[in-house]
Amino acid sequence: MPMTSWVQVAKDSDFTIYNLPFGIFQSKRLSPRIGIAIGDKIVDLSVLHEEGFFTELSQLPHDVFLKDALNDFIALGKSVTRKVREIVQGLLREENESLKEHQCRGKALVNLKEATMLMPVKVGDYTDFYSSMEHATNVGMMFRDPENALLPNWKHMPVGYHGRASSIIPSGIPIHRPKGQYKDPNMENPDFGPSRRLDFELELAFITGRPTKMGESISTKDAEDFIFGFVLFNDWSARDIQAWEYVPLGPFLGKNFASSISPWVVPIEALEPFRVNGPKQEPEVLPYLQCIKDHAFDIHLEVFIQPDGLKPTKVCTSNFKFMYWNIAQQLAHHTVNGCNINVGDMMASGTISGLTQDSYGSMLELAWKGTKPLQLEEGGERKFINDGDTVIMKGYAEKGGVRVGFGEVASKVLSAKE
Amino acid sequence: MPMTSWVQVAKDSDFTIYNLPFGIFQSKRLSPRIGIAIGDKIVDLSVLHEEGFFTELSQLPHDVFLKDALNDFIALGKSVTRKVREIVQGLLREENESLKEHQCRGKALVNLKEATMLMPVKVGDYTDFYSSMEHATNVGMMFRDPENALLPNWKHMPVGYHGRASSIIPSGIPIHRPKGQYKDPNMENPDFGPSRRLDFELELAFITGRPTKMGESISTKDAEDFIFGFVLFNDWSARDIQAWEYVPLGPFLGKNFASSISPWVVPIEALEPFRVNGPKQEPEVLPYLQCIKDHAFDIHLEVFIQPDGLKPTKVCTSNFKFMYWNIAQQLAHHTVNGCNINVGDMMASGTISGLTQDSYGSMLELAWKGTKPLQLEEGGERKFINDGDTVIMKGYAEKGGVRVGFGEVASKVLSAKE
After folding, report:
1. What is the mean pLDDT of residues B243-265?
2. ipTM of the assembly?
3. Whole-angstrom Cα distance, residue B126 to residue B130?
4. Is A183 left (phi over 0), alpha (psi -120 to 50) or beta?
5. Do A338 and B257 make contact, defined as CB atoms within 8 angstroms?
């Protein structure tokens, strides 16, 4: 028997009763607070708490939902956050009248379009992995050696690096084209100016929900207990700045000017029906990276470019299940040396590319270093992202009538600041 | 006329009346709070505030000093933090009796040895630069091409990368030897285990004191207005893990298991007498990196290795003035692309090596990749750091009878966790 809700949920809505993602919203009359999305509504959890719907959770602080970040709520642990979600799921079911007929219903349900979505968490540390074999191969072919595109370490560990937490922003906030140094192969000296090769990277990121102490490690078996949920992640990249700076210490100014995320955090529990086998790993990985269950998820992903005032063109169709390294391996690797994690750390997958050309997760790959420009639906072509373009990423999982989606991350590129 | 204090300050004390660094301390009877060090005492600023010594600063919140991090205090701005330091300096002067003869004196002065020093700030983002030409050259000679040791970008920008903020800890906390993957040149496949090449890196780090918004940049001219102060920074490094993982995205698990800092933040104002000319930069740097004044500081630095139960051996004598790239250039570069900073970001210099072999800031360089082991004073030799060793870093500036020091960062290495 499929679950349905008395809240109207359109057939193609990402926010079904099976999903119930958490986010931070505010409106003209409401201060920042925690909500759960369903259809085109937000359930204001602070109202439900005030009205006594969570009394069975006796340890819930009275102001737990009146926060501008999910961190403190998440830190209460999965026994609490799961239970809150279950209670809300129960209240929203078709047959349940306790909220539907309650006098607070009007106050408890806020229209999504009247709300402004804020950053869902205060990000402590942000790590970006590089876990798609197709992406790593494509980049290696373009920038290093086509015959040995994958570096020797790549199949032995989920390669990753630390990124900038301060410049992670929610969907809807425009970014300025970054300026920086670049030196093309034909240039004798580096020059300085607005990036000429601004790119997106299609990624998913998970948010940690439980801390470790320094010196502790997380096994692949336990890893998912430390993961609260997922967001879409656009790892903006200035390819010309990155190419000139990244040897030997990795990406820095080519990445840290901005990363954009979808504002609704889809709990890992909502993705359970979409768990699949990941790619076979050969050579065999070291014991601390071996898994006893599947940690890949079948999540359909799309990227659109929308020039100012024109229709969007879909430029990429990919899937999270393509990732060679899974989230349990990423977390086990990250902590195997004793590196401690906190609630609200963000760990992004790296660009998610598939095998086919239309599944590549960046313009660098889609237009193959500028050699194969993409045609846009209403005319024009793109090698990279132009000023005025909005990049939109969407993602959803669907199986047997159950749909769980991420909404979108959409961000417009403004010209470089003077 | 030199300043002296009625608080006894030993001749070789780092914490003179010219210094007055800020830190967070607690004791058996005192909760975490902000103090200023002088001689072997800590001035408890919360007591001075309670007793009305800061009444001219009318905007000071009543609990401003009863915090477990300096961030909120620093965020009040230099006009406030400088004034607090000036008032304390005035109160501590030999000829000033208002605190010396006050009934609160016993409460306001806490013995340093009775206090536990905590992390001075909550670090938002941590960046590590790579700004010593001698260090970059040494590493390039050992790991890449001795004929072209410096990479092409190195003299055009202060190369840097993002590090892990969660694992920055104050002096005195031991660390466990990290475990991880390594693959020596003679190995066919990577192996996993405790690092065999654990190293320190001698660095100084500055702490930012004023935020920027995304899209904003800081000029070299304004940069020091955004810098609150400095600490000693030991960038622990596992060379074998680092060597295997770092291409192409930079250091990750080889660094993020721990970084240790000295707990007293020396305000940039206290370093003013020690400002010197930095090295000449050739080729000329791009306009956004050019400086109109000196931003180098003559700070004497030392590293000691102390095996368990034995005397320490000095293994390195270096100086902060050797840095090719200065702090103003680092901050201007970091923000030139619009990357935003927050109060409490930490930006470390990179290993500070000089020209002579005894001035190299890491064991990697001092023992030249293990080929020239260092002899310890009470016997034994070291290529890298052994379990049971304590690494101690000290730093001070001295000129014309004025001494301003950092105290020390000392951390013991414990064996890898089972």
Report:
1. 98
2. 0.97
3. 13
4. beta
5. yes
What pTM does this model have?
0.98
Q: How far apart are CA B242 and CA B44, in angstroms?
A: 42
pLDDT number for residue B100: 98
CATH number for the domain whose boundaries are A22-117: 2.30.30.230
Q: Where in chain A is the domain with CATH 2.30.30.230?
A: 22-117
pLDDT at B418 over 90: no
Q: How far is CA A295 from CA A10, A207, A333, in A?
A: 30, 15, 14
Q: Answer whether B257 sits within 8 Å of A179, measured CB to CB.
A: no
- d(CA B333, CA B124) in angstroms, rounded, equals 18
Percentage of chain A modeled with pLDDT above 70: 100
Instruction: Tell me: pLDDT of B279 over 80.
Output: yes
pLDDT at B126: 98
- Name every chain A residue with its beta carbon within 8 A of the beta carbon of B156: 181, 183, 189-190
**Among the partner residues B176, B338, B341, nearest to A338 by beta-carbon distance:** B176
State the pLDDT at residue A59: 85
Report pLDDT for B1: 72
- Say if residues A214 and A340 touch (Cβ distance below 8 Å): yes
Helix or strand holding residue B330 (H, E): helix B327-335
For residue A139, give the chain B residue with the closest CA.
B248
The confidence score (pLDDT) of residue B43 equals: 98
A214: closest CA of chain B, how far (Å): 7
- C-alpha distance across the termini of chain A, in Å: 59
Residue B129 pLDDT greater than 90, yes or no: yes
Rounded distance between C-alpha atoms, residue A83 and residue A20, angstroms: 12
Among 3.90.850.10, 3.30.750.210, 3.40.640.10, 1.10.10.60, name the CATH number for the domain at A126-414: 3.90.850.10
Mutate to test the interface with A, among B337, B341, B415 (most CBs of A within 10 A): B337
Q: Which of A165, A245, A251 lies at the smallest CB-CB distance from B249?
A: A251
What average pLDDT does the segment A325-338 reach? 98
Cβ–Cβ below 8 Å for B339 and A164? yes
Please list the active-site residues of A: 135
Distances (CA, A) of B399 to A376, B18, B36, B40, B240: 66, 12, 22, 21, 41
pLDDT digits (tens, 9 = 90+) for A86-113: 999 999 999 999 999 999 999 999 999 9
Length of chain A: 418
Exposed (0-12), middle (13-18) or buried (19+): which is A100, by Cβ within 10 Å?
A: middle
The nearest CA of chain B is from the CA of A179 a distance in Å of 5
Which chain B residues are closer than 8 Å to A214 by Cβ? 167, 169, 175-176, 257-258
Pairs of CB atoms within 8 A across A/B: 190
| Residue intervals in chain A for CATH 3.90.850.10 | 126-414
Q: What is the pLDDT of residue A418?
A: 83
Contact B338 A176 (CB under 8 A): yes
Q: With contacts defined as CB-CB under 8 Å, which chain A residues touch B124?
A: 165-166
CA distance B144 to B139: 8
Query: Are the beta carbons of A250 and B245 separated by less than 8 Å?
Result: no
Contacting residues for B36 by C-beta, under 8 A, at least 6 apart: B20, B21, B22, B23, B42, B43, B45, B85, B88
Question: What pLDDT, on a 0 to 100 scale, did the predictor assign at position B143?
Answer: 85
**What is the band of B207 on the pLDDT scale with cuts at 50, 70, 90?**
very high
Structure tokens at B219: 């000029």
Q: Return the pLDDT at A166.
A: 98
CA distance A232 to chain B (A): 21
By Cβ distance, the residue of A125, A163, A337 closest to B241 is: A337
Q: In which region does residue A6 sit, left (phi positive, over 0), alpha (psi from -120 to 50) or beta (all else)?
A: alpha
Give the residue numbers of B annotated as catalytic, written as ranges.
135
User: How far from A199 is each of A154, A177, A365, CA to CA, in Å?
Assistant: 23, 10, 10
Residue A339's closest chain B neighbor by CA?
B257
